[in-house]
Amino acid sequence: MKRTVRTAASALAVTGLALGLGACSEVAEKAADQVDKSVNETYEVTYEVSGKNLESIDYHAGGGTAMEPKVESEKKPAAPWKKTVTLKGIMPPAVMPISLDPADLTCKVIYQGKVIKEAKAEQAMAGGCVAVSPVVG
User: What stretch of H or E contains 115?
Assistant: First the structure.
């Protein structure tokens, strides 16, 4: 009798483990699908820069990879400056202005009509405006 109980308990444990692993693989599969969607989804952002004496503006333009985005540059742009780009997946939107007169400098990243990152004056010069990709999460 004890042997039958142990055999039944072992069978139940194995069945429970198999079901648990099946549930874990389903969760992992859903997570992988979400990552694939985030990596492949495209989105549009608009960069805006205002200020005086702009020397250059560097920005992520959509090429390259998330870890090594292609950076494009405009020299001596007229202010206010505005550019809309299409980025992919987890690539962070970023615009980095350089000005000889940073006191009036402002940069913004706009997604779906909302400012998702803004920096002014020295903060805009030091690090520009770098936001987290809006398709992450």
Answer: strand 114-120
- The residue to which tokens 């010069």 are assigned: 125
List 72's β-bridge partners, or say none.
Answer: 59
Residue 90 is which amino acid?
A: I
Token representation of residue 53: 């004496």
Residue 83 phi/psi, 5-degree rounding, is -150, 130
- Give the model's pLDDT for residue 29: 56
**Residue 49, amino acid:** V
Return d(Cα 117, Cα 122) in angstroms, integer: 15
Rounded to 5 degrees, what are φ and ψ at 112?
50, 45
Q: pTM to 2 decimals?
A: 0.73
Strand locations in 65-93 (E): 69-75, 81-88
Other CB atoms within a 10 A radius of the CB of residue 65 amount to 11
Site of tokens 């702009």 = 54
Looking at residue 102, its amino acid is P
Length of the chain measured in residues: 137
Q: What CA dihedral angle connects 46, 77, 107 and 114, to 10 degrees?
A: -20
* Model confidence at 11: pLDDT above 50: no
